[in-house]
Hints:
Elements: H1 5-12, E1 21-22, H2 23-28, H3 35-43, E2 56-57, H4 69-79, H5 91-94, H6 101-106, H7 111-119
Parallel strand pairs: 1-2
Amino acid sequence: MTFDFQQVYDLVNEVPEGEAASYGMIASLLPGVTARMVGRALSHLDDGSKTPWHRIVNATGAIAPRPSADEQHARLKEDGVIFRKNGYVDWRDCAWRGPSQRWIEKNERDPVDVMEIVAGWRRKE
Length: 125
């Protein structure tokens, strides 16, 4: 199954400095897209892309072990993302709050549906 990577990139571009999202958060807003598909799309970004791939981590807040893991950690810290003692993103302080109204309108999404999806991201500590 193929899908348009650009839809992933457009949504990842919505994640601002100081916040991080999980692959699943991104996927939850794109019908028919899974967390693995988000990861696949991000792995195909061209070098020098302005898409902030580094702001996407796994559901626990961990950075996947891979050659770019140190770079990702450094970029997140530079963005102001806070890490817990275990090295995972502190979701309480840095979880993405969801896409902009502009993205919702451009993608013809129901704002209530998007709010319900985002509300489902809340984590209990």
